[in-house]
Design goal:
This protein is mainly alpha-helical. The protein has a domain of 26 residues.
Length: 77
């Protein structure tokens, strides 16, 4: 290398402890928010499925009750 040529120095960025802590906290909040969102979707789906199952059971019970009343009426005639 000649004295006329510029010398390139690679400088690595230095992060302060506070900046590192901020980045870690930010990542933790982002991961937590994502996980909470995923769990909320799971719970919402489960509640919907349970409500559907209970509604289906109630419909079956109403139909059984109506059939029993018809059977009693038919026997009484």
């Amino acid at each position: 290398m000649t004295p006329d040529q510029p010398q390139w120095v690679v400088m690595e960025p230095e992060l302060s402890k506070n900046e590192i802590r901020k980045d870690v906290a930010q990542s933790a909040v982002e991961v937590t928010a994502t996980t909470v969102g995923q769990v909320a979707v799971i719970i919402t789906g489960a509640v919907r499925d349970v409500a559907g199952a209970i509604g289906g059971m109630a419909t079956e019970l109403f139909e059984l009750r109506a059939a029993a009343k018809r059977a009693e009426k038919d026997l009484g005639e």
